[in-house]
Design goal:
Order of helices and strands: HEEEEEEE
Number of strands: 7
Strand content: over 45%
Distance between the termini: 63 Å
Helix content: 10-25%
Largest sheet: 4 strands, antiparallel
Strand order of the largest sheet: 3-1-2-6
Structural class: alpha+beta
């Protein structure tokens, strides 16, 4: 009787150990992140500066998970003595296949633009 309990307990331990190892084994890792080359373009949209960023797959690019466009505009303020104020705008974070877009307001001029990325 005592030997039967030991054998049953050993068999149960072997079954639990076998199922436990399948639960503990790591899942296969995702494929390495693809490399992308990102660029920003600016053009006028009804007189307003509009910037767009996009990323395409490239062998010589860098790993990118998200990107957005950064647009710096000079906004003209004041009626009697007009002066320009730099205004920085950011587009929404997008995945590499999508485009990120942002526009400056009216009475503004483009100062600079660039792409920001997250690895």
């Amino acid at each position: 009787m005592f030997w039967g309990k030991k054998v049953a307990g050993g068999a149960l331990a072997a079954v639990l150990m076998a199922t436990g190892t399948s639960l503990v084994t790591p899942a296969p890792a995702e494929a390495a992140a693809a490399k992308y080359a990102c660029k920003a373009e600016v053009h006028l949209d009804l007189g307003r500066p509009k910037a767009t960023s996009s990323c395409k797959k490239s062998g010589s690019g860098k790993k990118v998970s998200k990107h957005r466009v950064k647009l710096v505009c000079d906004v003209v303020r004041g009626r009697g003595t007009p002066h320009s104020v730099p205004w920085t705008l950011y587009g929404p974070w997008k995945k590499p296949g999508q485009k990120s877009t942002v526009k400056c307001g009216f009475s503004s001029f483009t100062r600079s633009w660039s792409v920001q990325t997250k690895a």
